[in-house]
Design goal:
7-stranded parallel β-sheet; 2 domains; 15 strands; 6-stranded mixed β-sheet; 10 helices; Dihydrodipicolinate Reductase, domain 2; Rossmann fold; 330 residues
Length: 330
């Protein structure tokens, strides 16, 4: 019987805590240590935070977290690549594979070529693989549409719609999409870069790379979804005239022709949630997931399921398209 893969969890915010039971439920994986920057968490039993991982004490230092000799670090901390690299560099240099929810890591070669090269060279030097993934980016708006193009003889354009009802999502996500803000507050936070879904540009570049396209430019437009009726949940209310969430459209162009369109809408009380991939080409083709895909649930699953593939991948900075196929791990 193959022994389980030993894991260190890095980052124990809401998503990290949701992930622990998913990792523990898999016989092929074993959480042996955990690390967080919050000094108040040091020494806490992981099970007291996450409801799983009993007997694993949260470490306050990297040395303590690495003492059990984990093979893989699951990193759920930041969205920005330049903030992530200082966090994972010592892990890579300790010859530990990385699976991270950092959106900008999912396909960073076009947007951050120099830093991507640095990460790639460090990973190869230490014989490990580094992967950024999740439900989006990582699957629904990049890997999935790229795979679906396999049934077409020619692709002229790709459109993906991810329409989510965020009513059941965790509080940080609802805050991130601007739910409850008035139009002025929403605009201020958008201008400050506080409201946006990180990853549409990376997804567009992923698709373009798989199709052999060279995009001349990309754009990312963020707008509020304003309600004209009261929308409420268990512990929140959004009054008419306020934002229930965000509508964000990423576009990729070859010349003046829009060849990639990625529509991301996440709002509390959103009707008709769905995920749809629409291809224009020979032939036209589309698939739809009615009801959509729950982001937190699916992200935890894909992170856990990607771990064996990252172990088996060639060393270096990887994407979901160049590691062994990810499937549901035992």
């Amino acid at each position: 019987m193959t022994p389980p893969i030993d894991i260190v969890q890095v980052g124990l915010g809401p998503l990290g805590q949701m992930l622990t039971p998913v990792l523990e439920a898999k016989s092929s994986l074993r959480v042996v240590s955990a690390l967080d920057i919050d000094p108040e968490l040091a020494g806490t039993d992981l099970a007291d935070l996450a409801g799983a991982g009993q007997g694993v004490s949260v470490s306050g230092t990297l040395d303590d977290a690495l003492a059990p000799n984990p093979s893989v670090a699951v990193v759920t901390t930041v969205s920005e690549l330049d903030r992530l690299w200082p966090q994972i560099q010592p892990l890579v240099e300790a010859s530990i594979h990385i699976v991270s929810t950092c959106e900008e890591l999912s396909h960073s070669w076009t947007t951050s070529p120099d830093l991507s090269r640095t990460i790639d060279e460090a990973a190869k030097s230490h014989g490990v693989s580094v992967l950024g993934t999740g439900i989006n980016p990582g699957f629904l708006m990049d890997f999935l549409p790229s795979a679906v193009t396999a049934v077409c003889r020619r692709i002229d354009s790709v459109k993906v719609e991810r329409i989510q009802d965020a009513s059941s999502r965790r509080l940080p996500f609802r805050q991130k999409i601007g739910a409850g803000l008035n139009a002025e507050e929403f605009e201020q936070r958008t201008t400050a870069g506080k409201i946006r879904h990180v990853g549409l540009t990376e997804s567009a570049n992923f698709i373009a790379a798989k199709l052999g396209w060279s995009l001349d430019r990309t754009e990312d437009v963020v707008e509020p979804v304003i309600t004209d009726v009261t929308v409420e949940g268990d512990d929140w209310v959004v009054e008419p005239g306020y934002a229930t969430g965000v509508n964000q459209t990423g576009r990729g162009f070859i010349g003046d022709r829009e060849v990639i369109t990625l529509v991301f809408r996440a709002a509390v009380g959103q009707s008709d949630p769905h995920d749809t991939v629409s291809l224009t080409g020979d032939p036209d083709y589309s698939i739809t997931v009615p009801g959509g895909t729950h982001g937190d649930v699916a992200t935890c699953a894909i992170i856990a399921n990607a771990i064996p593939s990252v172990i088996d991948a060639l060393p270096g900075l990887r994407t979901m398209s160049d590691i062994p196929l990810v499937s549901c791990a035992p």
